[in-house]
Amino acid sequence: MRVILKSDYKKLGTSGRVVAVKDGYARNFLIPRGIAVPADKSALKTLAEENRVGDLRKNKEKRTAQKIADQLAKVSLTAKVKVGEEDKLFGSVTTQDIADLFKEKGFDFDKRKIELTDPIKELGVYQVNVKLHSDVNVKVKLWVIKN
User: Could you tell me which CATH class the domain 69-146 is placed in?
Assistant: First the structure.
């Protein structure tokens, strides 16, 4: 029997996949628990429509992320920090600090989208990678200067 998985299931696959299983397994376990539905014509048509709508949504998200990336490419950030002897920072410049600097410039997004290769613990100029979408990354210049 062919079924469409409604949710991810470890032994069979991810949500939306059409898989072939034994009739008893489908009737007695997968379908009653809501893990799968029978793969008849209407269910397959519904799945195709959901995939089409999902692809349209992903494309729109990617276009929006690309527009934001184009704007971010023109931005340069300046972090004013307190330093001790030999220009060593007290602490470090974190992704939250960088997200706050972006917020001051009018860009509001989650700090988890900001990727730092190494902790920023010295004065200087750094390239900060911002991952806006799975396919859209942008590098922004960050100046770390004395307060």
Answer: alpha beta
